[in-house]
Amino acid sequence: MVIKPKVRGFICTNAHPVGCAKSVEQQIAYIEEKGNLGDGPKNVLVIGSSTGYGLASRITSAFGYGAKTLGVCFEKAPSERKTGTAGWYNTAAFHQQAAKKGLYAETINGDAFSDEIKAQTIDKIKANMGKVDLVIYSLASPRRTDPDTGVVYKSTLKPVGREYTTKTYDTDKDKVHDVTLEAANDDEILNTIKVMGGEDWERWMDHLAEAGVLAEGCKTTAYTYIGKALTWPIYGQATIGKAKEDLDRAAAAIIGKNTELLVEANVSSLKALVTQASSAIPVMPLYISLMQEVMKRDGTHEGCIEQIHGLFSTCLFGDTPTLDEANRYRMDGIETNDVTQAKIQALWDKVTQENFHELSDYAGYHHEFLKLFGFDVEGVDYEQDIDPLVKW
Ligand code: NAD
């Protein structure tokens, strides 16, 4: 079939296998160009491995350090009439490239929140890796079924305490307008913490420890976004921010429960980027379009792979980690420093419907958005008839 993007609101409902493969190859090439990254992980479990920051972590582990990688993700396979999801094609491409280099790579496709998938993962680790020395937790999900109770929790993206009115950009209607987001109630806050907080990260680490598959000195990290004043009301101090605060609790709990193994658990704060998860958050497309304009102009723009390469080489496996008072690795310093934020704020104050495209890097945002699904990738012939039935 000839595959063209089908964009509905903040999501694209199809994906291009060749474009996805090319963008995975570009990330691999970025890491390989860095040369030998030195001592690093050997056996890596990536939970949320198929897109965004998790995929970049898997690529860095495998192609930067030669590690065996086991991925867990939740993706849809293609059929004769419908393409698979981008994460499906990314994973297929990753496997193909890993095989070329003789690198072990396996992926479990299913609900990472379930105990069944945790058990399958442990079986695979025992069979093919022995123990893991790095566990990356990079899930972004709107819901979670609690394996103990069967209750389904749903996350919301709302301010906490009081309603908040702010500018936003509607990517569907190409409109900058004010939006008032109503405050979350207690139940919505609790639900969001249940989905995006640290409970499941801790549960993964408990199961892995009980099964005896954590290597001594094993490191684990879960990703967060902290941001600054412009995004605090809808992120850092909102429902999702409350959930992310719970990651700090979980990190301390993981360390406390695994003192004999000397497990290191840190939350890593990364910069805002266009991913499937962030494009669903109100205000983020506007904020990221303005932030990218500033950071590209300043020559400080980074994507997933650059951020994760930095995290591994300076923090997780380097001697120059930037840690904050809560023991979090900080890779978001350039985005959140006062100089960058003042420049973004100045654009934010000026931006209107009329000048949006002139003031912002929406063109770059849109390109990155399409690229997430394998579209608008240089060198891909989008008129070509493509077989969507790619396997892994
Ligand atoms: P993403 O949407 O690109 O990736 C999410 C991953 O989770 C995918 O691999 C998906 O398959 C997997 N997944 C979702 N539900 C699952 C389930 N039930 N079972 C198994 N796998 C499941 O997201 P992302 O933007 O890369 O976010 C990853 C993490 O990084 C999140 O914790 C996010 O908060 C954090 N983060 C994101 C940004 C940003 O701007 N995008 C910035 C800082 C931190």
From TrEMBL:
<feature type="domain" description="Trans-2-enoyl-CoA reductase catalytic">
    <location>
        <begin position="82"/>
        <end position="317"/>
    </location>
</feature>
<dbReference type="InterPro" id="IPR024910">
    <property type="entry name" value="Enoyl-CoA_Rdtase_cat_dom"/>
</dbReference>
<comment type="subunit">
    <text>Monomer.</text>
</comment>
<feature type="binding site">
    <location>
        <begin position="273"/>
        <end position="275"/>
    </location>
    <ligand>
        <name>NAD(+)</name>
    </ligand>
</feature>
<dbReference type="Pfam" id="PF12241">
    <property type="entry name" value="Enoyl_reductase"/>
</dbReference>
<protein>
    <recommendedName>
        <fullName>Enoyl-[acyl-carrier-protein] reductase [NADH]</fullName>
        <ecNumber>1.3.1.9</ecNumber>
    </recommendedName>
</protein>
<feature type="binding site">
    <location>
        <position position="225"/>
    </location>
    <ligand>
        <name>substrate</name>
    </ligand>
</feature>
<dbReference type="InterPro" id="IPR024906">
    <property type="entry name" value="Eno_Rdtase_FAD-bd_dom"/>
</dbReference>
<comment type="pathway">
    <text>Lipid metabolism; fatty acid biosynthesis.</text>
</comment>
<dbReference type="GO" id="GO:0050343">
    <property type="term" value="F:trans-2-enoyl-CoA reductase (NADH) activity"/>
</dbReference>
<feature type="binding site">
    <location>
        <begin position="139"/>
        <end position="140"/>
    </location>
    <ligand>
        <name>NAD(+)</name>
    </ligand>
</feature>
<keyword id="KW-0520">NAD</keyword>
<keyword id="KW-0443">Lipid metabolism</keyword>
<dbReference type="GO" id="GO:0004318">
    <property type="term" value="F:enoyl-[acyl-carrier-protein] reductase (NADH) activity"/>
</dbReference>
<feature type="binding site">
    <location>
        <begin position="111"/>
        <end position="112"/>
    </location>
    <ligand>
        <name>NAD(+)</name>
    </ligand>
</feature>
<keyword id="KW-0444">Lipid biosynthesis</keyword>
<comment type="function">
    <text>Involved in the final reduction of the elongation cycle of fatty acid synthesis (FAS II). Catalyzes the reduction of a carbon-carbon double bond in an enoyl moiety that is covalently linked to an acyl carrier protein (ACP).</text>
</comment>
<feature type="binding site">
    <location>
        <position position="244"/>
    </location>
    <ligand>
        <name>NAD(+)</name>
    </ligand>
</feature>
<feature type="site" description="Plays an important role in discriminating NADH against NADPH">
    <location>
        <position position="75"/>
    </location>
</feature>
<dbReference type="InterPro" id="IPR010758">
    <property type="entry name" value="Trans-2-enoyl-CoA_reductase"/>
</dbReference>
<comment type="similarity">
    <text>Belongs to the TER reductase family.</text>
</comment>
<feature type="domain" description="Trans-2-enoyl-CoA reductase-like NAD(P)H binding">
    <location>
        <begin position="2"/>
        <end position="80"/>
    </location>
</feature>
<dbReference type="Pfam" id="PF12242">
    <property type="entry name" value="Eno-Rase_NADH_b"/>
</dbReference>
<dbReference type="GO" id="GO:0006633">
    <property type="term" value="P:fatty acid biosynthetic process"/>
</dbReference>
<keyword id="KW-0275">Fatty acid biosynthesis</keyword>
<keyword id="KW-0560">Oxidoreductase</keyword>
<feature type="domain" description="Enoyl reductase FAD binding">
    <location>
        <begin position="323"/>
        <end position="386"/>
    </location>
</feature>
<keyword id="KW-0276">Fatty acid metabolism</keyword>
<dbReference type="InterPro" id="IPR050048">
    <property type="entry name" value="FabV-like_NADH_b"/>
</dbReference>
<dbReference type="GO" id="GO:0051287">
    <property type="term" value="F:NAD binding"/>
</dbReference>
<feature type="binding site">
    <location>
        <begin position="74"/>
        <end position="75"/>
    </location>
    <ligand>
        <name>NAD(+)</name>
    </ligand>
</feature>
<feature type="binding site">
    <location>
        <begin position="48"/>
        <end position="53"/>
    </location>
    <ligand>
        <name>NAD(+)</name>
    </ligand>
</feature>
<dbReference type="Pfam" id="PF07055">
    <property type="entry name" value="Eno-Rase_FAD_bd"/>
</dbReference>
<feature type="active site" description="Proton donor">
    <location>
        <position position="235"/>
    </location>
</feature>
